[in-house]
Amino acid sequence: MVMAQSLFRQLKADNPRNEITVLAPAWTRPLLERMPEVEKSLDLPFRHGELNWLARLRMGRELRVREFTHAIVLPNSFKSALIPLHAGIPRRIGWRGEWRDLLLTDCRRLDKGKLPLMVQRFAALARPMDSSDATGFPRPRLRARPAELETARLRLDLNLEGSILALCPGAEYGPSKQWPATGHIELAHRYLRRNWQVWLFGSENDRAIAAGIMRGIDSELSINCRDLTGCTSLAEAIDLLSVATVVVSNDSGLMHIAAALGKPLAAIYGSSSPEFTPPLADKVELLATGIECQPCYRRECPYGHLRCLTGMRPAMVAGAIDRLERESSGEAANCGFS
How far apart, in whole angstroms, are the C-alpha atoms of residue 41 and residue 294? Predict the structure, then answer.
């Protein structure tokens, strides 16, 4: 969904009068609410992989009264093109895939060599098929909500003063994307001793690794280390990440959110690679050990050693944090009046 914002921004850049409605799972609504290009969002009530043809038919017919002129279908599945068809949307655009040529009016053949990034493939659908500028795209840019940030701060009793290191230690994909807790513990100690705050972000599924990190924090430093995993909504996590000084994240959804917020970001890669879905921001350091079997794209290490992550030393990550923090401080220092 973060990558899809590049498409929305391109549509607005091409014609500011375009009115964009996004049909997506309900959990994405907090992201869409922080994309100024999106006028409305509609909840897609189907589970992942669920066809439910009759329900899609009914939903499509209900959407006819909205008189949409264009539908851009980002998933490559057959079922994702059914609702625009039943809604009677005259122009239905998407990449060829899964027997849906007859469902789309503009079904395009993808040249993966020309468009290697997912974000390029999304944004290209805003342009004519023969566009000479098919590879360019605007970067995602989420806007935090200050009022909701303050509400979250008060509810969680957080202090926004001083430097804040945000750690995102989880990864839904599996352990081959998770930098071990021991690395996070040593890194947290390094910055807690410099009087930084350390906040841990993630979902309920990330509570186990976060608890392991918290157990390893020295008691005299733990007052400035907060475990927020499972304690925030997605909306609150977005707004709270917006005030972090630097973010350290595995290759995960929170990594892309931090990049779209424009935060200085150290991104740690294990079994995956930034070649297809890199974080799209200026202040980013991509960290990988570069061992011979990386990337393997497996959920668990096929060799059992996980050296792509255990070999990532906290000093390497700290070096990236310090460089990012210096660059950001330099920018801030140059923003005064002359």
Answer: 38
Strand ranges across the sheet with 106-108: 70-73, 91-95, 106-108
Do 4-124 and 148-333 show the same overall fold? yes
User: What tens digit of pLDDT does each residue of 46-85 get?
Assistant: 988 889 999 999 999 999 999 999 999 999 999 999 999 9
Helix (H, G, I), strand (E, B) or coil at 337: coil
Residue type, 5: Q
Which residue type occupies 29?
R
Q: What's the predicted TM-score (pTM) here?
A: 0.93
Domains of the chain, by residue range, sit at: 4-124, 148-333
Does the domain formed by 148-333 have CATH 3.40.50.2000? yes
Q: Which CATH architecture has domain 4-124?
A: 3-Layer(aba) Sandwich (3.40)
Round to whole Å and give the CA distance between 132 and 59: 36
Is the distance from CB of 94 to CB of 104 less than 8 angstroms?
A: yes
